[in-house]
Amino acid sequence: MSNQDPNSRIIRWLTYLMFMMFAMTSDSVGEIIKEVKVAFSVTNAQASLMHSLPMLGIALSGLFLGFLADKIGRKPTIIMGLGIFGVACYSFLIADDFMLIVSLMSLSGVAVGVFKTGALALIGDISSSTKQHTSTMNGAEAFFGVGAIIGPLIVAYLIHQGVAWQWLYVIAGGVCTVLIVGALFVKYPNYTREQGDEVKKVSVIQSLSLVKNPYALGFSIGAFLYVAAESAIYVWMPSYLVCDASTLRATYDCYTQGFSQTLAIYSVTAFFILRAAGRFVGIWMMSHFNWALVLMLFSGAIVLCFGLGLMGGKQVALYLFPLTGIFMSVIYPTFNSKGISCFPKNQHGSVAGVILFFTAAGAAAGPFIMGLVSDANGGDAKYGFMVATAFAAILFVGMVYNFVKNPTQKRLAEIEASEYSNS
After folding, report:
1. Above pLDDT 90, what percent of the chain?
2. Total count of domains within the chain
3. Does residue 75 belong to any structural domain of this protein?
4. Is 1 part of a structural domain of the chain?
C-alpha cells in the first residue's frame, strides 16, 4: 500500500487519535490522585499505585505481548488492545472502590501495551522510508502531547462542574469505540507473516532475545534515560516550584509578578504545550535535518536548562524547566522510530514492545528514585532534580557518541534498501 493511498492517510489519523486517547488518561493521573486521596483516605504510597501499576502493565505487556503484532497481524492486535481498553474505560462507571479503580487502571495499562505496539508496528507498514517513519512517529507523539494537555483540563472541568472524574474514562471509551469501528472498516496494508519455522520464532522468546540486540538495547536505554528525566518535570516540578514546601497548601508568594505566579501554578501545562508544539515542528525538522545532530543539540539543551534551573533557584527554574518541553519534544519519538527502523518490518511489533518496556520502566523508576533521594535530603525536590540532571547528562553523552560515531548509519541504509525500496 502506498503512503499516498487514502487508506494510509486514514490509518495515520486513527493512529494519531490512539496516542491522544492514551495520553488523555495517563497524563491526568496527577489530577485524579488528588481527588482519590480525599475520597478514599489513602496514603501517598497507596495513591502512587495509580501511576506505577499502569506503567508496570504497559511495560510487561510491551515486553511479553509485543510479538502479537508480528504473529497475528497489526489489525487484530490493535482491535484486541482497543477492545480491552474500552471495556476498562466503561467499567469506571461502576468504579466506587479504590482497589477496583487501581485494577481498572492496571488493566488499561496492559491494553495500551497491546494496541500501542500494534500501532507502532503499523507505522512502518504505511511509511515509504525510514525518514518518513520518523516524521510520522513525531506526528503520533505530537497528538500524544495534545492528549496530555486536554486530559487534565477535562478532569479539572468535570470536578469544577461537580461531575465525577470517572467520566474522563467514559469519554476515552467513546473515542476508543470510534477507533475500533474505524479499524474494522478501513483497509490495512497487506502484512505478510513469515512462513514455516520463522512464524514459530515470533514469540515471547524472540522478544526477550531482542533485548540483547545492540540496536534495540541502545535505543531502549536511551528511551529509559529520556523518560526518567522527562518525568521529573510533570511529577516533581510542581513540588520544586512551591515557595514553602513545609506548608500543607501550595503557595507561590515568592513570585512577585502576577505572570510568574500564574506560570508557577500552570507550569506543567506550559511544559506540555511546548512539548506538543515542538513535536509538530519536529515533523518538519526530522525531514530536513540530521536526526543525530538534532538529538545531540537538544539533549545538551535539556542538561543546560536543568543545570541553570538548579543553580539559579526557583525564579530561574520557573522559566527554564517548562522550556525543556521544546527540546524534549523530538527525542522520544525519534528513539522509537530509529530503534524500530533498525529491524525488518516483520519484527517491528516485537522491538516496539522492548522499547516500550524500557519506556514504562523509566516512567516508573525515575520519579521513584528521585523521591527517595529527595526524602533522604529533607524532602527537598531540588535533590530529585539533581538525579534527573544526571539522567539527562548521561543521555547527552550517548547522543554525542551517536552523532560522532553514527553506529546505526549502515544498518538503517540496509533496512531502507530491503524494506522500503518498493513502498
Report:
1. 45
2. 1
3. yes
4. no
Residue span of the structural domain in which 411 resides: 6-187+204-419
Assess contact for 101 and 51: CB atoms under 8 A: no
Shortest CA distance to 386 belongs to which of 252, 222, 223, 236? 236
Could you tell me the three cell numbers for 410? 549502515
In the numeric block, the cell 477507533 is attached to 179
Least confident of 51-55, 244-248, 337-341: 244-248
CA 384, chain centre distance (Å) = 21
Q: Cell 530536513: give the residue.
A: 288
Residue carrying C-alpha cell 503499523 = 122
Angle at 51 (CA atoms; ends 50, 53), nearest 5 degrees: 75
The domain that contains 134 carries what CATH number?
1.20.1250.20
For 72, the 3-state DSSP assignment is: coil
Please give the Cα distance from 372 to 181 (Å, whole number).
45
How confident is the model over 118-127, as a mean pLDDT? 87
Digit-coded pLDDT (tens) for 362-400: 988 888 888 888 888 887 889 989 999 999 999 999 999
For residue 13, being part of any structural domain is answered with: yes
pTM given for the model: 0.83
Residue 275 lies in a domain: yes
- Residue of 112, 62, 122, 110 whose CA lies nearest to 351: 62
